[in-house]
Amino acid sequence: MLHMASNINACLYGVENVVRWAWVRLILWRSSHDRLHGQQVLVYQVVVVVVVVVVVVVVVVVVVVVVVVVVAVVVVVVVVVVVVVVVVVVVVVVVVVVVVVVVVVEVVAVVVVVDVVVVVVVVEVVVVVVVVVVVVVVVVVVVVVVVVVVVVVVVD
Length: 156
Prior knowledge:
Structural class: mainly alpha
Number of strands: 0
Transmembrane segments: 41-67, 73-96, 103-123, 129-155
Largest sheet: none
Number of helices: 3
Keywords: Membrane, Transmembrane, Transmembrane helix
Strand content: under 5%
Distance between the termini: 5 Å
Radius of gyration: 34 Å
């Protein structure tokens, strides 16, 4: 954002220089002609100055809008990529944890010869706990990412 402000400032400085140049030319042209011819030239020169200023202002506005849109698109893309990566990592971790828990519970059930109903209940409880933990982690990560992006955009 600081770089964008610097570019906008440079554009405005350029507009100021163009206006100064046009004004100086206007004064020089007017003083170099007689009064009647000078007034005709003055009207022409005022039109030229107005057209130049309007064109420069339009170009500056277009550049500013394009820069703001590009920055916004980049920020949105970064946020989306971070959220997708976090979700993929969380899903992989959940799948691995559930598979490990199921295998461990089945091994323990075979070794200890526990009733099948107890094994099913234990697996269901573990899966529910893991899913709750994953949902909480994903929510926290998304909130942190959004806060960081907002802080970076506002501060920058």
